[in-house]
Fold:
Amino acid sequence: MNPSIVLLPNWIGDMLLALSLVMRLPESRRSETTLLVPPQMSGLVGELCDLPRIEYLRSSAEERKRTLNAVRNGGFHAFYLIPFSFSSAWFAMKTGVPLRRGLPEEMRRFLLTDPVSEEFSDNKLIHITREYAAILDMPYHPPEEWKGVKVEPGRSHAGSIVYCPGAAYGPAKKWPHFPELAKLHARFNIVVLGMKEDRQSAEEIAGMAPGRVTDLTGRTSLKEVAAIMSVARGVVSNDSGLMHLAGYIGTPVIGLFGSTSPVWTGPLGKQSIVMNYPEPCAPCFQRTCKYHHYRCLANITPEAVAAAMEKLCGLPEQSATQEACH
Structure:
């Protein structure tokens, strides 16, 4: 027996992309794998998979000691570090797990017993799951091969279209045309999901679709978000953790990309479409646009997104001109 532990990333999207690979490990390995999970995502991970998990508590010295002891007592042979921070490798070294595998970033090579080739380090020309597969020492599975998972379905909002207009990263990932899209989706109810900071966006969407919008921004847990998405017709989302959650559970999703790259972090599954606009400066991977025009997002038209949603979900087409979007 060679039990192993996998440290998952802190960002929701990265965590879900990594989890999709862990769940496709050979059964002989998967059955002996434990997840080390950021506490804010523990409930969601428990809903999405059946693997045992330890919460990666570290906000105080007492919590760090408790987490350290939990890992030490697990009898693990291998520690796979998906994050590339120095602190995660330092923690892994302190656990005494004999095999510690990860990227040799942030001067942490000396803390790893099995560093991964640097060819995978922050290579934005390939999907990030290639990097994760190398860390996990497993065959690569393209993101489009992911088939989704079943979750406990929501009891309301079935058949609605879900909008996710937020992006914690910054305005260079926020598409500005959700209100206009809501007007084009005139035959459907809309649920807006996100953080409380996205409430203004939800109000703008509701203003264009009176009586058809339910604003749940800041009012749902990640488990509740998954339940709502599972019964939705489809999801329209900025490049965010919620986009990746829709892809993970297999709900049709359109991912809107501005400063980031769909080649690097596109969503999972065959029922996903990515949309971006080929500006010369994109992708810049910046939080804000140094030219202040945000054309990489603004030039993705709501008509093009509505047409893509119709193609993806079989929605009845609205009376709007379809425009090409590359």
